Amino acid sequence: MPTISYHEFNNVMRELLKEQFPTTELLLWKGGDYVWDVVYELVSTETGAKLKYKPYDLYEKAEKVGNHEAVINGFFQSWREKIE
Questions:
Q1: Cβ(16)–Cβ(76) under 8 Å?
Q2: SS3 readout for 46-75
Q3: I need a labelling partner for 45 at 20 to 30 A (CA). Which of 26, 61, 82, 84 fits?
Q4: Does the pLDDT at position 2 exceed 90?
Q5: What is the mean pLDDT of residues 59-76?
Q6: What per-residue confidence (pLDDT) applies to 81?
Q7: CA–CA gap between residue 74 and residue 62 (Å, rounded)
Q8: At 1, is the secondary structure helix, strand, or coil?
Q9: Are 28 and 40 in contact (CB under 8 A)?
Q10: How many CA atoms, within 13 angstroms, populate the side-chain half-sphere of residue 12?
Q11: Residue 48 region by backbone torsions, left for phi larger than 0, else alpha for psi between -120 and 50, else beta
Q12: CA-CA-CA-CA torsion for 10, 16, 17, 20, nearest 10 degrees?
């Protein structure tokens, strides 16, 4: 599988998040000078559930295992379980 950039990975993940979880807000929880410092928080407008994550950590995991789709789907499954 060809390597994709962090920015591509993050953009695809955010688009899929909007599609699959329309009642979830994506908030920038912590910025930084480097992409690995950025922390986002997901907030469910229905249940009030919250989940902080570092997109760069997910990207690194996806690069390591060589399967971006599986890492994104696994993360989404964690969010789905948290909001249900």
A1: yes
A2: CCCCEEEECHHHHHHHHHHHCCHHHHHHHH
A3: 61
A4: no
A5: 96
A6: 97
A7: 11
A8: coil
A9: yes
A10: 13
A11: left
A12: -170
